[in-house]
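Help wanted!
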Amino acid sequence: MPSKQELLDLQFIEARHKLIDLAAFLDRIDRHPGTGDYRQEALKNALPILLTNSPDRARRILEALSDPTTEPIPKADFQGACGAPKPQQ
Amino acid sequence: MHYIEPHAHMVSRTTDDYEKLALAGCEALCEPAFWAGFDRSSADSFYDYFRQLTDYEPKRAAKYGIKHFCWLCINPKEADDPGFAREVMSLIPQFLACPTALGIGEIGLNKNTRNELAIFEEHVQLALDHQLPILIHTPHLEDKLKGTRLILDSLSNFSHLERSKVIVDHVEEHTVSLVLDAGYWAGMTLYPNSKCSLDRAIDILETHGPDRLWMNSACDWGVSDPLAVPKCALQMKNRHHHADAIQRIIYHNPRNFLSQSPNFVL
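Answered by r_m:
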Protein backbone atom coordinates (compact mmCIF):
# COMPACT_ATOMS: atom_id res chain seq x y z
CA MET A 1 0.00 0.00 0.00
CA PRO A 2 1.48 3.39 -0.92
CA SER A 3 2.32 5.91 1.80
CA LYS A 4 0.51 9.21 2.20
CA GLN A 5 3.49 10.91 0.57
CA GLU A 6 3.37 8.55 -2.39
CA LEU A 7 -0.39 9.07 -2.82
CA LEU A 8 0.11 12.82 -2.77
CA ASP A 9 2.81 12.47 -5.41
CA LEU A 10 0.50 10.28 -7.47
CA GLN A 11 -2.82 12.10 -7.16
CA PHE A 12 -2.54 15.59 -5.65
CA ILE A 13 -2.59 17.42 -9.00
CA GLU A 14 -5.69 15.49 -10.08
CA ALA A 15 -7.48 16.23 -6.78
CA ARG A 16 -6.49 19.90 -7.02
CA HIS A 17 -7.87 20.02 -10.54
CA LYS A 18 -11.21 18.54 -9.42
CA LEU A 19 -11.49 20.95 -6.49
CA ILE A 20 -10.89 23.99 -8.70
CA ASP A 21 -13.31 22.61 -11.29
CA LEU A 22 -16.02 22.35 -8.61
CA ALA A 23 -15.31 25.89 -7.41
CA ALA A 24 -15.50 27.17 -10.99
CA PHE A 25 -18.81 25.33 -11.50
CA LEU A 26 -20.31 27.07 -8.45
CA ASP A 27 -18.94 30.44 -9.69
CA ARG A 28 -20.45 29.75 -13.13
CA ILE A 29 -23.86 28.98 -11.67
CA ASP A 30 -23.76 32.19 -9.61
CA ARG A 31 -22.71 34.26 -12.62
CA HIS A 32 -25.51 33.11 -14.91
CA PRO A 33 -29.12 34.32 -14.88
CA GLY A 34 -32.10 32.47 -13.44
CA THR A 35 -32.89 30.84 -10.13
CA GLY A 36 -31.30 27.36 -10.30
CA ASP A 37 -32.94 24.47 -8.52
CA TYR A 38 -32.66 21.93 -5.71
CA ARG A 39 -29.51 20.32 -7.20
CA GLN A 40 -27.44 23.42 -6.51
CA GLU A 41 -28.54 23.43 -2.88
CA ALA A 42 -27.95 19.69 -2.57
CA LEU A 43 -24.38 20.15 -3.77
CA LYS A 44 -23.72 23.01 -1.35
CA ASN A 45 -25.27 21.10 1.53
CA ALA A 46 -22.92 18.17 0.89
CA LEU A 47 -19.76 20.27 0.78
CA PRO A 48 -19.24 20.55 4.58
CA ILE A 49 -18.78 16.77 4.68
CA LEU A 50 -15.48 17.29 2.83
CA LEU A 51 -14.12 19.25 5.79
CA THR A 52 -14.83 16.59 8.40
CA ASN A 53 -12.18 14.14 9.53
CA SER A 54 -14.31 11.03 9.19
CA PRO A 55 -12.91 8.18 7.08
CA ASP A 56 -16.12 7.75 5.04
CA ARG A 57 -16.66 11.12 3.38
CA ALA A 58 -17.51 9.57 0.00
CA ARG A 59 -20.21 7.36 1.54
CA ARG A 60 -21.71 10.25 3.48
CA ILE A 61 -21.82 12.52 0.43
CA LEU A 62 -23.53 9.77 -1.58
CA GLU A 63 -26.07 9.37 1.21
CA ALA A 64 -26.64 13.14 1.34
CA LEU A 65 -27.43 13.04 -2.41
CA SER A 66 -29.80 10.05 -2.11
CA ASP A 67 -33.59 9.78 -1.96
CA PRO A 68 -34.30 9.33 1.78
CA THR A 69 -37.74 7.68 1.31
CA THR A 70 -38.20 3.96 1.79
CA GLU A 71 -41.42 2.87 0.03
CA PRO A 72 -41.79 2.03 -3.67
CA ILE A 73 -43.59 4.77 -5.58
CA PRO A 74 -46.86 4.13 -7.46
CA LYS A 75 -45.59 5.47 -10.79
CA ALA A 76 -42.47 7.21 -12.09
CA ASP A 77 -42.95 10.53 -13.87
CA PHE A 78 -39.71 10.10 -15.83
CA GLN A 79 -37.14 7.35 -16.44
CA GLY A 80 -33.86 9.08 -15.64
CA ALA A 81 -32.11 10.35 -12.52
CA CYS A 82 -30.93 13.86 -11.61
CA GLY A 83 -28.20 13.20 -9.05
CA ALA A 84 -30.02 14.67 -6.05
CA PRO A 85 -33.41 13.94 -4.50
CA LYS A 86 -36.23 16.28 -5.43
CA PRO A 87 -37.46 18.27 -2.39
CA GLN A 88 -40.89 16.61 -2.41
CA GLN A 89 -39.29 13.14 -2.18
CA MET B 1 -2.48 -10.12 -18.19
CA HIS B 2 -5.74 -11.82 -19.01
CA TYR B 3 -9.11 -10.84 -17.63
CA ILE B 4 -12.86 -11.34 -17.82
CA GLU B 5 -15.17 -8.43 -18.62
CA PRO B 6 -18.25 -9.54 -16.67
CA HIS B 7 -20.62 -6.77 -17.80
CA ALA B 8 -20.48 -5.16 -21.26
CA HIS B 9 -23.21 -4.16 -23.70
CA MET B 10 -21.46 -5.02 -26.90
CA VAL B 11 -24.53 -4.62 -29.12
CA SER B 12 -23.86 -0.90 -28.66
CA ARG B 13 -20.14 -1.10 -29.44
CA THR B 14 -18.14 -1.34 -32.63
CA THR B 15 -16.12 -4.30 -33.81
CA ASP B 16 -13.03 -2.16 -33.18
CA ASP B 17 -13.87 -2.40 -29.49
CA TYR B 18 -13.72 -6.19 -29.65
CA GLU B 19 -10.22 -5.85 -31.10
CA LYS B 20 -9.19 -3.44 -28.31
CA LEU B 21 -10.58 -5.79 -25.67
CA ALA B 22 -8.69 -8.73 -27.18
CA LEU B 23 -5.46 -6.74 -27.32
CA ALA B 24 -5.92 -5.80 -23.65
CA GLY B 25 -6.20 -9.47 -22.65
CA CYS B 26 -9.95 -10.00 -22.48
CA GLU B 27 -10.60 -13.73 -22.52
CA ALA B 28 -14.38 -13.69 -22.04
CA LEU B 29 -17.14 -11.17 -21.66
CA CYS B 30 -20.71 -11.30 -20.45
CA GLU B 31 -23.52 -9.19 -21.83
CA PRO B 32 -26.64 -8.63 -19.73
CA ALA B 33 -29.89 -7.73 -21.49
CA PHE B 34 -30.59 -4.04 -20.98
CA TRP B 35 -32.31 -0.88 -22.18
CA ALA B 36 -31.58 0.20 -25.75
CA GLY B 37 -31.74 3.91 -24.92
CA PHE B 38 -35.38 3.98 -25.96
CA ASP B 39 -38.46 1.90 -25.12
CA ARG B 40 -39.08 -0.90 -27.60
CA SER B 41 -42.47 -0.99 -29.23
CA SER B 42 -43.20 -4.71 -29.12
CA ALA B 43 -42.13 -8.03 -27.68
CA ASP B 44 -40.93 -8.91 -31.17
CA SER B 45 -38.16 -6.35 -30.73
CA PHE B 46 -37.00 -8.27 -27.68
CA TYR B 47 -37.19 -11.55 -29.59
CA ASP B 48 -34.72 -10.15 -32.11
CA TYR B 49 -32.59 -8.64 -29.34
CA PHE B 50 -32.36 -12.02 -27.59
CA ARG B 51 -31.35 -13.59 -30.93
CA GLN B 52 -28.65 -10.96 -31.23
CA LEU B 53 -27.38 -11.71 -27.71
CA THR B 54 -27.42 -15.49 -28.06
CA ASP B 55 -26.39 -15.94 -31.68
CA TYR B 56 -24.85 -12.92 -33.40
CA GLU B 57 -22.66 -11.41 -30.67
CA PRO B 58 -20.92 -14.71 -29.77
CA LYS B 59 -19.87 -15.00 -33.42
CA ARG B 60 -18.66 -11.40 -33.57
CA ALA B 61 -16.63 -11.86 -30.38
CA ALA B 62 -15.19 -15.19 -31.53
CA LYS B 63 -13.47 -13.45 -34.45
CA TYR B 64 -11.22 -11.86 -31.83
CA GLY B 65 -10.78 -14.94 -29.69
CA ILE B 66 -13.20 -13.71 -27.02
CA LYS B 67 -15.88 -15.97 -25.55
CA HIS B 68 -19.21 -14.15 -25.35
CA PHE B 69 -21.91 -15.05 -22.82
CA CYS B 70 -25.21 -13.34 -22.04
CA TRP B 71 -27.88 -12.79 -19.38
CA LEU B 72 -31.54 -12.53 -20.30
CA CYS B 73 -34.45 -10.47 -18.96
CA ILE B 74 -36.54 -7.40 -19.58
CA ASN B 75 -34.63 -4.53 -18.01
CA PRO B 76 -36.22 -2.46 -15.23
CA LYS B 77 -36.60 0.67 -17.35
CA GLU B 78 -39.06 -1.16 -19.59
CA ALA B 79 -40.59 -3.20 -16.77
CA ASP B 80 -42.97 -0.55 -15.48
CA ASP B 81 -45.69 -1.87 -17.83
CA PRO B 82 -46.37 -5.29 -16.29
CA GLY B 83 -48.41 -6.63 -19.20
CA PHE B 84 -45.69 -5.83 -21.69
CA ALA B 85 -42.99 -7.10 -19.34
CA ARG B 86 -44.73 -10.45 -18.89
CA GLU B 87 -45.12 -10.82 -22.66
CA VAL B 88 -41.35 -10.35 -23.04
CA MET B 89 -40.64 -12.67 -20.11
CA SER B 90 -42.59 -15.44 -21.81
CA LEU B 91 -39.90 -15.43 -24.52
CA ILE B 92 -37.01 -15.95 -22.12
CA PRO B 93 -37.19 -19.71 -21.36
CA GLN B 94 -36.57 -20.73 -24.98
CA PHE B 95 -33.42 -18.56 -25.05
CA LEU B 96 -32.17 -19.91 -21.72
CA ALA B 97 -31.60 -23.15 -23.61
CA CYS B 98 -28.92 -21.44 -25.73
CA PRO B 99 -25.38 -22.62 -24.96
CA THR B 100 -24.07 -19.17 -23.96
CA ALA B 101 -26.96 -18.03 -21.74
CA LEU B 102 -25.76 -17.68 -18.14
CA GLY B 103 -28.84 -16.69 -16.17
CA ILE B 104 -31.33 -13.91 -15.49
CA GLY B 105 -30.13 -10.31 -15.69
CA GLU B 106 -29.74 -7.48 -15.47
CA ILE B 107 -32.97 -7.27 -13.55
CA GLY B 108 -33.59 -4.81 -10.75
CA LEU B 109 -35.12 -1.40 -10.27
CA ASN B 110 -34.90 1.94 -12.06
CA LYS B 111 -37.21 4.47 -10.40
CA ASN B 112 -38.21 2.15 -7.54
CA THR B 113 -41.85 1.73 -8.60
CA ARG B 114 -44.27 -0.94 -7.43
CA ASN B 115 -44.52 -2.40 -10.95
CA GLU B 116 -40.74 -2.59 -11.32
CA LEU B 117 -40.57 -4.42 -8.02
CA ALA B 118 -43.29 -6.90 -9.03
CA ILE B 119 -41.54 -7.74 -12.31
CA PHE B 120 -38.20 -7.98 -10.49
CA GLU B 121 -39.66 -10.61 -8.17
CA GLU B 122 -41.13 -12.57 -11.08
CA HIS B 123 -37.66 -12.63 -12.68
CA VAL B 124 -36.14 -13.93 -9.44
CA GLN B 125 -38.70 -16.72 -9.42
CA LEU B 126 -37.87 -17.50 -13.06
CA ALA B 127 -34.20 -17.85 -12.13
CA LEU B 128 -35.08 -20.09 -9.20
CA ASP B 129 -37.28 -22.25 -11.41
CA HIS B 130 -34.33 -22.79 -13.77
CA GLN B 131 -31.70 -22.95 -11.00
CA LEU B 132 -29.71 -20.13 -12.59
CA PRO B 133 -27.65 -17.25 -11.18
CA ILE B 134 -28.98 -13.70 -11.12
CA LEU B 135 -27.38 -10.40 -12.11
CA ILE B 136 -29.04 -7.37 -10.51
CA HIS B 137 -28.91 -3.76 -11.68
CA THR B 138 -29.23 -1.12 -8.97
CA PRO B 139 -30.73 2.28 -9.83
CA HIS B 140 -28.84 5.39 -10.81
CA LEU B 141 -27.65 8.29 -8.67
CA GLU B 142 -30.19 9.49 -6.09
CA ASP B 143 -32.32 6.35 -6.53
CA LYS B 144 -29.53 3.82 -5.85
CA LEU B 145 -29.58 3.66 -2.05
CA LYS B 146 -33.35 3.29 -1.77
CA GLY B 147 -33.44 0.84 -4.69
CA THR B 148 -30.69 -1.31 -3.23
CA ARG B 149 -32.54 -1.52 0.08
CA LEU B 150 -35.81 -2.44 -1.68
CA ILE B 151 -34.02 -5.12 -3.72
CA LEU B 152 -32.35 -6.65 -0.67
CA ASP B 153 -35.62 -6.60 1.28
CA SER B 154 -37.35 -8.34 -1.60
CA LEU B 155 -34.64 -10.99 -2.01
CA SER B 156 -34.85 -11.83 1.68
CA ASN B 157 -38.40 -13.12 1.05
CA PHE B 158 -37.09 -15.86 -1.26
CA SER B 159 -36.21 -18.54 1.26
CA HIS B 160 -34.73 -20.93 -1.33
CA LEU B 161 -32.44 -18.35 -2.91
CA GLU B 162 -28.72 -19.17 -2.73
CA ARG B 163 -27.19 -15.77 -2.04
CA SER B 164 -23.85 -16.86 -3.49
CA LYS B 165 -25.58 -17.14 -6.88
CA VAL B 166 -26.68 -13.50 -6.90
CA ILE B 167 -24.56 -10.50 -7.82
CA VAL B 168 -25.82 -6.99 -7.08
CA ASP B 169 -24.13 -4.67 -9.54
CA HIS B 170 -23.22 -0.98 -9.68
CA VAL B 171 -22.46 -0.75 -5.95
CA GLU B 172 -20.81 2.38 -4.59
CA GLU B 173 -19.51 3.39 -1.18
CA HIS B 174 -23.02 3.78 0.29
CA THR B 175 -24.35 0.41 -0.89
CA VAL B 176 -21.44 -2.04 -0.98
CA SER B 177 -21.66 -2.99 2.71
CA LEU B 178 -25.42 -3.57 2.48
CA VAL B 179 -24.83 -6.09 -0.31
CA LEU B 180 -21.76 -7.88 1.01
CA ASP B 181 -23.03 -8.09 4.59
CA ALA B 182 -26.19 -9.82 3.31
CA GLY B 183 -24.06 -12.52 1.67
CA TYR B 184 -24.39 -11.53 -1.99
CA TRP B 185 -21.69 -10.77 -4.54
CA ALA B 186 -21.17 -7.10 -5.44
CA GLY B 187 -20.14 -5.57 -8.77
CA MET B 188 -18.38 -2.23 -9.16
CA THR B 189 -18.98 -0.43 -12.43
CA LEU B 190 -16.18 1.80 -13.69
CA TYR B 191 -17.69 4.86 -15.38
CA PRO B 192 -16.09 8.20 -16.27
CA ASN B 193 -18.86 10.39 -14.80
CA SER B 194 -21.13 8.27 -12.65
CA LYS B 195 -20.96 5.09 -10.60
CA CYS B 196 -17.30 4.32 -9.58
CA SER B 197 -14.13 5.95 -10.83
CA LEU B 198 -11.08 3.70 -11.07
CA ASP B 199 -9.63 5.02 -7.82
CA ARG B 200 -12.92 4.80 -5.90
CA ALA B 201 -13.31 1.18 -6.96
CA ILE B 202 -9.80 0.46 -5.68
CA ASP B 203 -10.65 2.29 -2.44
CA ILE B 204 -13.69 0.02 -2.00
CA LEU B 205 -11.53 -3.01 -2.72
CA GLU B 206 -8.94 -1.90 -0.16
CA THR B 207 -11.60 -1.11 2.43
CA HIS B 208 -13.79 -4.20 2.04
CA GLY B 209 -11.34 -6.81 0.79
CA PRO B 210 -11.54 -8.85 -2.41
CA ASP B 211 -14.11 -11.47 -1.36
CA ARG B 212 -17.25 -11.57 -3.55
CA LEU B 213 -16.28 -8.46 -5.52
CA TRP B 214 -15.77 -7.90 -9.23
CA MET B 215 -15.32 -4.87 -11.45
CA ASN B 216 -16.75 -4.19 -14.89
CA SER B 217 -16.95 -1.49 -17.54
CA ALA B 218 -20.68 -1.86 -18.32
CA CYS B 219 -19.73 -0.17 -21.60
CA ASP B 220 -22.79 0.71 -23.66
CA TRP B 221 -24.09 3.47 -25.93
CA GLY B 222 -23.50 6.13 -23.25
CA VAL B 223 -20.39 7.69 -21.72
CA SER B 224 -18.38 4.58 -20.87
CA ASP B 225 -15.03 2.92 -21.56
CA PRO B 226 -14.72 -0.69 -22.75
CA LEU B 227 -11.13 -0.74 -21.45
CA ALA B 228 -12.03 0.42 -17.94
CA VAL B 229 -11.15 -2.93 -16.34
CA PRO B 230 -7.57 -3.17 -17.67
CA LYS B 231 -7.12 0.54 -16.91
CA CYS B 232 -8.20 -0.12 -13.33
CA ALA B 233 -5.76 -3.04 -13.18
CA LEU B 234 -3.00 -0.64 -14.22
CA GLN B 235 -4.06 1.83 -11.55
CA MET B 236 -4.03 -0.99 -8.97
CA LYS B 237 -0.44 -1.66 -10.00
CA ASN B 238 0.35 2.07 -9.58
CA ARG B 239 -1.11 1.81 -6.07
CA HIS B 240 1.21 -1.10 -5.25
CA HIS B 241 -1.31 -3.92 -5.46
CA HIS B 242 0.41 -7.25 -6.04
CA ALA B 243 -0.03 -8.95 -9.41
CA ASP B 244 -1.84 -11.87 -7.75
CA ALA B 245 -4.33 -9.51 -6.11
CA ILE B 246 -5.00 -7.82 -9.43
CA GLN B 247 -5.48 -11.14 -11.19
CA ARG B 248 -7.89 -12.22 -8.48
CA ILE B 249 -10.22 -9.27 -8.93
CA ILE B 250 -10.18 -9.11 -12.73
CA TYR B 251 -10.12 -12.83 -13.52
CA HIS B 252 -10.53 -15.35 -10.70
CA ASN B 253 -13.43 -13.66 -8.91
CA PRO B 254 -15.63 -13.28 -12.00
CA ARG B 255 -14.69 -16.77 -13.13
CA ASN B 256 -15.67 -18.20 -9.74
CA PHE B 257 -19.05 -16.49 -9.70
CA LEU B 258 -19.87 -17.12 -13.35
CA SER B 259 -18.86 -20.79 -13.12
CA GLN B 260 -22.03 -21.29 -11.07
CA SER B 261 -23.81 -21.18 -14.41
CA PRO B 262 -23.45 -24.51 -16.21
CA ASN B 263 -22.92 -22.73 -19.54
CA PHE B 264 -19.90 -20.71 -18.40
CA VAL B 265 -17.08 -22.80 -19.84
CA LEU B 266 -13.76 -21.17 -20.81
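OP: Thanks! One thing I noticed: The first helix of chain B runs from residue 15 to 23.
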